[in-house]
UniProtKB/TrEMBL annotation:
PANTHER family: DIPHOSPHOINOSITOL POLYPHOSPHATE PHOSPHOHYDROLASE, OS02G0734300 PROTEIN. It comes from Aquilegia coerulea. The lineage of its organism: Eukaryota, Viridiplantae, Streptophyta, Embryophyta, Tracheophyta. It holds the Pfam family NUDIX. InterPro entries: DDP-like_NUDIX, NUDIX_hydrolase-like_dom_sf, NUDIX_hydrolase_CS, NUDIX_hydrolase_dom. The keyword Lyase does not apply. This is Nudix hydrolase domain-containing protein. Belongs to the Nudix hydrolase family. The keyword Heme does not apply. GO terms for molecular function: metal ion binding; pyrophosphatase activity. Residues 18-151 form the Nudix hydrolase domain. It comes from the Eukaryota.
Length: 171
């Protein structure tokens, strides 16, 4: 059974040399056209305190693997479930709200199920978009970089590409 309450608090949060570690996913699916061609769509969500659009992400806790945390955050914030696939990279970024440094890890998530009820449905909206639309509305440079990593992948391949690039972004 899946909990319909989001985890809260920072007692179980992971830190690396003083940087809070956060994980997230770029949920994606394919939209098939009349001609049989398929177009990649990604799911963005609104921030809790505004209308900024972003990909779901949140704290990585000590009692879960990195992929479990990414799947949990995606479920809690976006109300979708699926297969956490490839690591898209890791980025260092500074919170504008708190001024603290974060280490963020992003993954691709092939959506298998979109739920009508999820923990943060009352505080977030979600919207499927084309890659071009997502590039225009996503508010954070490091998330846009993760999107470009997703687009560059051969998502039909079952072999994970070599990654390991760490990016630094203060936006």
């Amino acid at each position: 059974m899946v909990s319909m309450i989001s985890r809260t608090g920072r007692q179980l949060q992971r830190y690396n040399q003083g940087c809070r570690q956060v994980v997230g996913c770029i949920p994606y699916r394919y939209k098939f056209g009349i001609n049989g061609d398929k177009e990649l769509e990604v799911l963005l969500i609104s921030s809790q305190k505004g209308q900024k659009m972003l990909f779901p992400k949140g704290g990585w806790e000590i009692d879960e693997s990195i992929k479990e945390a990414a799947a949990r955050e995606t479920f809690e914030e976006a109300g979708v479930q699926g297969d956490v696939e490839f690591e898209l990279g890791s980025w260092m970024f500074q919170s504008k709200r708190y001024g603290t440094l974060y280490e963020g890890f992003m993954f691709s998530l092939l959506v298998k199920e979109q739920l009508d009820f999820w923990p943060e449905r009352n505080v977030r909206t979600r919207r499927w978009m084309t890659v071009e639309e997502a590039r225009d509305v996503c508010q954070y440079g490091w998330m846009k970089e993760a999107l470009e990593e997703l687009v560059s992948l051969d998502l039909t391949s079952s072999k994970q590409p070599e990654r390991g690039v760490t990016h630094c972004s203060l936006s």
